[in-house]
Design a protein that fits this description.
This is IS4 family transposase. With 107 residues, this protein is an all-alpha fold. The chain has 4 helices and no strands.
């Protein structure tokens, strides 16, 4: 865990810890869940990915909204600031492209 004195760092560390726990809990919930029938077992992976992605997006949206309220900025302004950083924007674009490819294959 984070051991610094910076409050923002502590909040970020706690948030990442919470997100990690949520992802791990969802993964455990879905991997230990047994369904009847071949149709449901074929769709289990797709459902897990979709549910996980929706929850991650909800967490990100909530973080941006709260961070915006604290800093006095809109979530749109925060995203514009993040997208102005070429290195971070390239990471976001890689994730978006991977999701588009997944949607083409599985959708």
């Amino acid at each position: 865990g984070y051991q610094g004195c910076d409050f923002n760092g502590q909040i970020a560390d706690a948030t990442l810890c919470y997100l990690t726990y949520t992802v791990m809990a969802l993964e455990k919930r879905f991997t230990e869940y047994q369904t009847m029938g071949e149709l449901f077992s074929d769709m289990e992976g797709d459902l897990m990915a979709l549910t996980l992605w929706k929850r991650v997006l909800t967490c990100i949206e909530r973080i941006l909204r709260i961070l915006g309220e604290i800093l006095g900025m809109t979530p749109q302004y925060l995203m514009a600031t993040i997208s102005g950083n070429d290195k971070e924007m390239s990471k976001i674009l890689v994730m978006a492209e991977a999701l588009e490819k997944w949607d083409e294959v599985c959708g």
